[in-house]
Amino acid sequence: MKANPEINKDLSFEDFKTEVLNDYNLAVTSRECSLLGRREVLTGKAKFGIFGDGKEVPQLAMAKAFKNGDFRSGYYRDQTFMMAIGALNIEQFFAGLYGNTDLKEEPMSAGRQMGGHFATQSLDENGNWNNLLEQKNSSADISPTAGQMPRLLGLAQASKIYRQVTGIDTTNFSNKGHEVAWGTIGNASTSEGLFFETINAAGVLQVPMVMSVWDDEYGISVHAKHQTTKENISEILKGFQRENDQKGFEILRVMGWDYPALIETYQKASNVAREEHVPVLIHVQELTQPQGHSTSGSHERYKNEARLSWEAEYDCNVKFREWIIANGIATDDDLTALEKTIKKQVRDGKKAAWTAFSQPLKNEQNELIALLETVATASSNKVFIEKLKNDLAEISEPIRKDILSTARKALRYVVHETSETKDQLTSWINNYIDVVQPKYSSHLYSQSEKSALNIKEVKPTYDDSSENVDARLVIRDNFDAIFSKYPEALIFGEDAGHIGDVNQGLEGMQEKYGELRVSDVGIREATILGQGIGMALRGLRPIAEIQYLDYILYALQIMSDDLATLQYRTKGRQKAPLIIRTRGHRLEGIWHSGSQMGGVIHLIRGIHVLVPRNMTKAAGFYNTLLESDEPALIVECLNGYRLKEKMPTNIGEFKTPLGVVETIQEGNDITLVSYGSTLRVIEQAAKELLEVGISAEIIDVQSLLPFDLNHDIVKSVAKTNRLMVIDEDVPGGASAFILNEVLNTQNAYKYLDSKPETLTAKAHRPAYGTDGDYFSKPSVEDVFEAVYNLMHETNPHEFPKLR
């Protein structure tokens, strides 16, 4: 079913006919999959369907220009393209529709994504890179419209880095930067800000990117007149067109039903992007959507008779068929016979996919039915268990919910009984969950040997010559060591290049390592993240710098929906070990308050969140992560760059472990838990508490995700019998997360003699200035009084009420 990836101008007419008919075969096969797929949803076998009908012919043209090593970052309607590059067959199409959890049957996501979301496998089963130059690659799709755009930018930029930066081992990743990143998007989604941000950034960076806009004039039910100025995206992007003396885009327009013009257009786009490293926008117009947006509704509700009639006439497959007959390539009878054969192939493929999906479930169903018969026979509640068994047996197309739910309900009827069959049922349920749950829950984080959790701690070392220096010099010299050790490492962000970042943590690095490895970028946080994701997907080790923690909100959607889910939604077959560098904590003012941690840690599960209290700890995290294969967010303390720290003698080699807390002061009366800059406030308060006879143990969390893997905090609480979590985030933010981990995961409640307390910032952002910080976030006096009041409740005689 795979299309010829390149056009050969020396083809004989017979070979040309064969290639054209192969393309038509693919177009019809894809259409039949869409049509039958919709019926599978409407009959209840599949949950939801969103298909690529109406876009078949332009995707065939795109596939012909797509070469080994290239990457796609696309739209969830590119099924024909995936079939054409040999990455999707009929059975796999339907396996995705049914949600088959077997990666061999459904290699896109093992059933974790709905149909229409595609990917290829960049990694083997052990998490090691495949040779990406020997395959055609697709980065894993996401549903949020235009969310694929920032990643596309990074996929294209990787080719620029591989072409122009020397010293990188390009094995498996690049052939002198000749790879093109191909993007696809629906016309309505070009209204999203991420689209415009990416287009602008690609024009500035001049990267080999080809962006296809599939234009069928609608976004769900909303016409283009409500979506796009002038109802035409290429018209309003005319200002991006490159000229002789100005860099920009090559902008091309083509009708989506014109087979020869599409092939010519995509070959031209490929040559411009591949050879010149100039981005290209292809506006593919006059496309149709024969079944409407999705299975959730009918397009007859919002398209009038004239539009529906036009769509029937200008359907790209219909026009392709007419062109084939008009050019003597095949007759109507020939094509009719071919179409009949294809229909049968699709039906047969659908049946095979359904059997592969349903048979294991029926086997599990039958296994439980047999067990329940045995359990019922030995139970005094036989009649109730037999009803459950019979109800399960009547389900002709069971799912795992039906099976496990029945087993768990049956267990309730024998809970008071003692029998071998009860033990068998209990064991069956536990084993079933152990086997099945990972099918839906594995690979949120790396499960390879390069997991960050496997990187052992290496402590910083010092000798008599170690000087106290501004902490920024520790981080700067560590970056120097990183760029020297890892040619594939690079950093980019606002002010990161020429001036060496706003706090001089990259001082002199651009001059030493060049503008491509230490780069300034525009004010565009989402595509800064996208650059990092795309380059990491192609084997580079990017560090994306977001100037302040507050600004990460611009990029949070990309972090949450794309980067954080990547390992999960590909079941470990793609990775993007991007490091996100930012700074925050205790800065003054509403927009630089650094108090979004509660939201961040709940929205980006799948990304490690690290909160070092000083630059030595931060540097150690960078060193750890660069030996791992996972993404992480590192929040440096903004008010720590000018504080003094000793310069380690093993710069670039020491490593801070993830998920390990540190006790920075021992005590007996209460355990105080915090992170980041707030620890300095707590340390001062602890000194003052000691003056009144209160001994506080202070624990630095260091790592919010993962959190205290060794359960060291509960060991402290067992000693002090009191707990207070102190946080600069809003009430119920990160403090609630920490408290839940300590009380419910570590079961510290068993050791408490007093109510566990949290001390947080106020619910609002901090007002400007030092007084704004003092009255908005925990101060030394706040910590002192909160701890003192807790001790007063315990021993009012020794600690009389303060106020």
UniProtKB/TrEMBL annotation:
Keywords: Oxidoreductase, Pyruvate, Thiamine pyrophosphate. GO terms for biological process: branched-chain amino acid catabolic process; response to nutrient. The keyword Oxidoreductase applies. Its cofactor is thiamine diphosphate. It is an enzyme of class 1 (oxidoreductase). Gene3D superfamilies: 3.40.50.920, 3.40.50.970. InterPro entries: DH_E1 (IPR001017), THDP-binding (IPR029061), Transketo_C/PFOR_II (IPR009014), Transketolase-like_Pyr-bd (IPR005475), Transketolase_C (IPR033248). GO terms for molecular function: branched-chain 2-oxo acid dehydrogenase activity. This is 3-methyl-2-oxobutanoate dehydrogenase (2-methylpropanoyl-transferring). It comes from Bizionia echini.
